[in-house]
Amino acid sequence: MLTVDFSRFPIAPGDRVLDLGCGAGRHAFECYRRGAQVVALDQNAEEIREVTKWFAAMKEAGEAPEGATATAMEGDALALPFPDDSFDVVIISEVMEHIPDDKGVLAEMVRVLRPGGRIAVTVPRYGPEKVCWALSDAYHEVEGGHIRIYKADELVAKVREAGLKPYGSHHAHALHAPYWWLKCAFGVDNDKALPVRAYHKLLVWDIMKKPLATRLAERTLNPVMGKSFVVYATKPHLPRLAEEAAAQ
């Protein structure tokens, strides 16, 4: 289940891509399939081990084209172990709401992104997320849980303040919002509640089969109740005079 829309955020073969806070690796895998040179970074060692295994399995199965590379590694989003201008593309999906110093994370992403490079940021959407918080303290009051809820204009403003130029945005995963409302209502750790199990079964069926009816329904509902908010931005090239001054 991809949150970034790669029709709006194209990945070209050979692009150097950083999936920051990669989690289970869903976006990293898609970039690898598209021929990119992918680095998937996360602080969770267990998830990095799993992503490494999946990269190897994809290579063995021939799912990645010739020239594509993929590396998974542990790392700190506030101190990325890469030189300036290392990547053509940076993706950070459903991560910034967990990190107290979100401005510091944006600054590091800008540092490692080359001028002219592109970035995709996704976070939980304000409205659906407020419902989750209202229904359950356990949803967010856990170690490593969500510590803030972004309004769309607030996130876009922070992206601009970091020196990036936003060029598009959208909402995603409308069909997943009710699932999390049910989880919060019946208990975030209670997967046995009938409404939760039934809705989860529907979501799995939708992800596997991708029927036209649910695709159209989600597309229609995304602007109203999409679970995630996505912003795309570029890192501007330095003006010629600034480049000359920096070189002196």
Automatic annotation (TrEMBL):
<keyword id="KW-0808">Transferase</keyword>
<dbReference type="InterPro" id="IPR029063">
    <property type="entry name" value="SAM-dependent_MTases_sf"/>
</dbReference>
<dbReference type="GO" id="GO:0008757">
    <property type="term" value="F:S-adenosylmethionine-dependent methyltransferase activity"/>
</dbReference>
<dbReference type="Pfam" id="PF08241">
    <property type="entry name" value="Methyltransf_11"/>
</dbReference>
<feature type="domain" description="Methyltransferase type 11">
    <location>
        <begin position="18"/>
        <end position="120"/>
    </location>
</feature>
<dbReference type="GO" id="GO:0032259">
    <property type="term" value="P:methylation"/>
</dbReference>
<keyword id="KW-0489">Methyltransferase</keyword>
<dbReference type="InterPro" id="IPR013216">
    <property type="entry name" value="Methyltransf_11"/>
</dbReference>
<protein>
    <submittedName>
        <fullName>SAM-dependent methyltransferase</fullName>
    </submittedName>
</protein>
